[in-house]
Amino acid sequence: MDNKIWYLEEVNLFKIICPHYYADYKESHEFDSYSKKEFIYFTDEPSTKVYLIDKGKVKIAYYTDEGNEVVKAILSKGEIFGEKTILGETKHNEFAQSIEKNTSICSISVGELENLMLENRNLSLKLYKFIGLRMKRLERRLEIILFKDVRKRTIEFIQELKDEYGKELLNGEILIKHPYSQKEIATLIGTSRPSLNIILNNLKEEGYLSFNGKEIILKKFKSVR
């Protein structure tokens, strides 16, 4: 499935899960605020809630036995996390950390979410579909990190950005307006920011793309190797 469809499914999911959209739940719910680098939950902490991002960004990651951090996802406004709780997960096998100041999160207990799912069959279908697609996406990204070099990882991540955020211009080029900093992209593909910058500049010199801040323009990217 096109990643762009997956992303839109997730944004719609926020709107039908968030208790603030329901009169019966709205008054008893508040958004929780987190400062930069503050943890939302830790690895091995009991898993009892699903979280929805109203504002800011959240890093989902874990540490290997060797003490190396592996970042599974960087999520932003409209996205959800902690969703494996509804599949029966009792403890988190990862941690969630705010990476922007004034990050705003809406949390919903498993019991409340199950009630909403009973009342809304469409919600149940979307939620389970979302979980399946996210797991496939994560497996693909971890496979890329484990078995491909930095250039290949960079190229495949840009392909993901194209599918999710790309818009074709009149001249046939693709404009990508994405939410990630270079540091965040480097973290997601398992490299350093200087190494990522070298690869991006090489791709620019080879005529495949140009980039500026959170915008990338793809030129002859289909033929890149």
Order of helices and strands: HHEEEEEEEEHHHEEHHEE
Distance between the termini: 23 Å
Number of strands: 12
Low-confidence stretches: 1-11
Q: What is the overall pLDDT average?
A: 83
Assign an overall shape: globular
Query: Major sheet, described briefly?
Result: 4 strands, antiparallel
Report the helical percentage.
40-55%
The CATH topology name of the largest domain reads Jelly Rolls
* CATH evolutionary superfamily of the largest domain: Jelly Rolls
CATH class category name of the largest domain = Mainly Beta
Can you describe what's shown?
Helix content is about 40%, strand content about 25%. The N terminus is likely disordered. It has two domains: about 120 residues, Jelly Rolls (Sandwich); about 70 residues, Arc Repressor Mutant, subunit A (Orthogonal Bundle), CATH 1.10.10.10. It is built from seven helices and twelve strands. It is of the alpha+beta class and about 220 residues long. Helix 1 crosses helix 4 and helix 3 packs across helix 4. The chain has a four-stranded antiparallel sheet. A four-stranded antiparallel sheet has the order 2-7-4-5. Strands 9-10-12-11 form a four-stranded antiparallel sheet.
Task: Show the helix and strand layout.
Elements: H1 3-17, H2 23-26, E1 32-34, E2 39-41, E3 49-55, E4 58-63, E5 69-75, E6 80-81, E7 95-98, E8 103-109, H3 110-119, H4 121-147, H5 150-165, E9 166-168, E10 174-177, H6 182-188, H7 193-205, E11 209-212, E12 215-218
Antiparallel strand pairs: 1-8, 2-7, 3-6, 3-8, 4-5, 4-7, 9-10, 10-12, 11-12
Helix pairs in contact: 1-4, 1-5, 3-4, 6-7
